[in-house]
Design goal:
By secondary structure, the protein is of the alpha+beta class. Among the domains are: 159 residues, no CATH class; 111 residues, Neutral Protease, domain 2 (Orthogonal Bundle), CATH 1.10.390.20; 99 residues, Sandwich (Jelly Rolls). It has 31 helices and 15 strands. The strands form two sheets. Strands 8, 9, 10, 11, 12, 13, 14 and 15 form an eight-stranded mixed β-sheet that branches. Strands 1, 2, 3, 4, 5, 6 and 7 form a seven-stranded mixed β-sheet that branches. Strand 3, helix 22 and strand 4 form a beta-alpha-beta unit. It starts with 60 loop residues before the first strand and ends with a strand.
Length: 757
């Protein structure tokens, strides 16, 4: 349902969120309070800039809960590929390939040798250190190393000439990496104290005191961006309120944008968003409240950016202004500014995101005065203005969407309705659990992840720091309406709804496998099953390889008995989703009877009984076998599209129409009413020829003709199901060329065609 500048890779037709560092789209979960931001380099541009911050891909079987304001978003220029976005230009990186570092070059050096190594490394190299292993983390980023680098950055700042000639960007990015790694590995890196705080302030103070830091030039963009981002990493927002005011006030869209410097001011919003979690921040704003004036002036002055790739900065400014409404003492000062910005915006069009963020703040922080702002009815008005598509897939499934057309609705409906049978074949349930009246599901699809973050937060009052959310409500209450919220994946090459099948599994799992509502199932740890099963069904139903899970399997990070203890609040995204998938798949494949016993307890709401089976009856009994299974999984056993199904190689040759023995042609597409044609040479004496299709979007029917191209009016046999899962088996086929065609009843894409004989 969750990279925040989370880097998520879309896999398959309706891919679940693979990884945050995670949220989202980006390839994006909620950043823990105080997490140092990694404003990612160009590889992640256009994703949500808290990218490497480990968040959850979805919210599980959630009840509605208070939603914090969305994190700031990164500006981008629509239509440009990621590495041509403004941040890449500002950093001077262009489209250079990533160059991982030799970690020992850093862990084996100290003092001036370490500083020189950093200065001689490129930005991509240092970027790879964000993923440094725990065994190397202390040698690279212990406090004494960081202090050395911080004072080197101070020296570079004192002699700063308005460009990166002194490698100040590399030094500051190394510091960002250290803060990031230490946050997640404090037990091995050690704590950071006053000596590093003093050294980091010395570096940043020197940079901003240097008049060249105010240059409006492309050369200054990268270093200024790095310095402002580092403020957020140090969690020192209170000290740098004057810098934030300066940057917000100095920004001039015409000159700064021409110099590629918009990215340099945007980190201000990230630092402000995390300020409330830092000691002394509230008192500092009380002493110097001018930052609120600067935010209002920025949003008011730059309204011409709305509707452009940089319009997210206006949204960010409005969001951060609204965040200050959590402090009652600031409300008298804020009310006129917030009301003025609301008066200039509407529930649709380019200004609706700004209004959505501000209206949320009003309704959560100053609701008794919502009439003063004209925002009392905004949730209903936003829903009416933006969720106008209503489509019934079946008596049990309804789609409400922001922008889906008839073809896309048909594709989504087919995927959902066909999943029912697959789910029940895996779950082996005997019907709904007791007291569950959730007989229908409402699927709400937003147009983009940005729409989801802003509009879903206001309309449905949920957390949107994730990749989607299932709101179960109380299934025992008559008239309860469960729904899940998701969004179109605009990073995919073809139509795709992010987490569609994962979220639908939550609905089915809650109805047929887990008694009661979400809170009922949280009495004892159950998240390993809730998310692991949703991942397992989503991947296996779509016949998509879970590459992310296979990758972590090779690391042997957890024992099976440890995974039974997984809970959202204390677990990384990898543990919740990828390791959850591995644990569930292992139990279903290798110990089905044990899993059936656990499910019987889950279905009855006997959480203690289920826990006893997992932690006492099973206990550590399967840990060694699970470890061996992980080795096989990483070696290829889990690379089958579905458990137990071998993966065939791509057919050779450049003619995509040519099939051969035991191979596959991937990513086949055709528009409605057209064909994808294939031919195959059959050797003399072949007993059986099987051609099958699967995956992708739309609906293609498979036709066979032994003598010439196959058409709907010229064929011997066909397979015409409701989707792309078609198979034709020909016994004793004639020797020589035979022909198959995939006819597009509904335009299809991403289909795999396999031939076996």
């Amino acid at each position: 349902m969750t990279l925040v500048l989370t880097l998520v890779l879309a896999i398959g037709v309706f891919a679940p969120l693979g990884q945050a560092a995670p949220a989202a789209p980006t390839p994006g979960d909620k950043t823990p309070a105080g997490t140092p931001t990694r404003l990612a380099p160009p590889s992640a541009i256009g994703e949500n800039p808290a990218d490497k911050t480990l968040a959850k891909a979805d919210g599980g079987r959630r009840l509605a809960s208070e939603q914090p304001l969305p994190e700031p978003l990164s500006p981008q220029v629509p239509g440009l590929p990621p590495k041509q976005q403004p941040q890449a230009k500002a950093l001077g990186l262009g489209a250079a390939a990533e160059k991982p570092c030799n970690v020992s070059d850093f862990t084996s050096r100290t003092g001036s040798d370490l500083v020189q190594q950093i200065k001689s490394s490129d930005y991509w190299c240092i970027d790879s250190l964000f993923k440094i292993g725990r065994g190397d983390a202390a040698n690279a980023f212990r406090e004494s190393q960081m202090v050395t680098v911080a004072y080197a950055a101070r020296d570079a700042a004192n002699s700063y000439r308005g460009n990166d000639s002194g490698s100040i960007s590399e030094l500051m990015y190394y510091l960002q990496a250290g803060y990031f790694v230490q946050f997640y590995n404090e037990d091995v890196v050690g704590s950071y104290g006053d000596s590093l705080r003093t050294a980091s302030r010395a570096a940043l103070d020197a940079f901003y005191a240097n008049p060249r830091s105010r240059d409006i030039t492309p050369d200054n963009a990268g270093p200024l961006f790095g310095a402002t981002t580092l403020i957020d990493s140090t969690q020192d927002a209170a000290h740098y309120l004057p810098v934030f005011k300066r940057l917000l006030t100095d920004y001039d869209s015409a000159s700064w944008n021409k110099a590629g410097m918009a990215w340099a001011v945007n980190p201000v919003f990230f630092a402000l968003s995390r300020g409330p979690d830092q000691a002394g921040y509230r008192a500092a704003v009380n002493a110097d409240p001018g930052v609120m004036d600067a935010l209002y002036a920025f949003a008011n002055r730059n309204r011409d950016l709305l509707g452009t790739g940089l319009g997210t900065m206006v949204f960010n400014a409005a969001t951060e202004l609204g965040r200050f409404m959590q402090y009652p003492e600031f409300l008298p000062k804020l009310r006129p500014s917030v009301r003025d910005l609301l008066a200039q915006s509407s529930q649709s069009g380019p200004s609706m995101y700004e209004r959505g963020a501000l209206a949320w703040s009003v309704l959560h922080r100053d609701k008794d005065n919502c009439a003063y702002y004209g925002a009392c009815d905004d949730p209903a008005k936003f829903k009416a203005a933006n969720l106008a598509v209503n489509h019934t897939c079946s008596p049990s499934i309804k789609i409400i969407a922001q922008a889906l057309d008839s073809t896309q609705l048909g594709t989504a409906c087919t995927s959902l309705t066909n999943q029912d049978a697959y789910f029940h074949s895996v779950a082996k349930d005997s019907g709904p659990v007791k007291d569950d009246n959730n007989s229908t599901i409402e699927v709400v699809v937003f147009h983009t992840d940005f729409d989801y973050k802003v509009l879903a937060a206001l309309i449905y009052d949920i957390r949107t720091d994730n990749g989607g959310m299932y709101l179960e409500g109380n299934p025992a209450q008559v008239g309860n309406q469960p729904r899940f919220l998701c969004y179109e994946n605009k990073w995919a090459s073809s139509f795709e709804i992010w987490n569609l099948n994962h979220e639908y599994t939550h609905y089915l799992d809650g109805r047929f496998n887990v008694y009661g509502d979400y809170d009922a199932g949280q009495v004892l740890p159950i998240d390993w099953w809730v998310e692991g099963f949703a991942e397992f069904v989503s991947y296996s139903y779509r016949k998509v390889v879970n590459d992310g899970a296979i990758a972590v399997a090779s690391q042997h990070t957890y024992k099976l008995s440890e995974l039974f203890d997984t809970v959202y609040a204390t677990s990384s995204q990898d543990r919740v989703y990828r390791w959850g998938y591995l644990a569930v798949r292992y139990m279903l494949e290798q110990h089905r009877s044990d899993m059936d016993a656990v499910l019987a307890k889950y279905r009855a709401g006997d959480w203690t009984g289920a826990r006893t089976i997992l932690k006492t009856t099973i206990g550590t009994r399967y840990d060694a076998d699970f470890d061996s299974w992980l080795t096989k999984c990483a070696a290829g056993a889990c690379a089958a599209d579905t458990p137990g199904e071998p993966q065939l190689p791509e057919c050779a040759g450049g003619d995509i129409r040519k099939l051969d023995a035991n191979c596959v042609r991937s990513n086949i597409a055709a528009t409605t009413g057209n064909y994808a044609h294939f031919y195959v040479w059959v050797p003399q004496g072949t007993k059986q020829l099987k051609v099958s299709t699967k995956g992708g979007t739309g609906n293609g029917d498979l036709y066979y003709n032994p003598g010439s191209w196959a058409y709907t009016n010229s064929y011997v046999t066909r397979s015409a199901g409701p989707d792309n899962s078609e198979t034709l088996t020909v016994s004793n086929p004639p020797a020589g060329y035979v022909f198959f065609s995939l006819y597009a009843q509904q335009g299809f894409g991403g289909v795999s065609v396999t031939s076996e004989f």
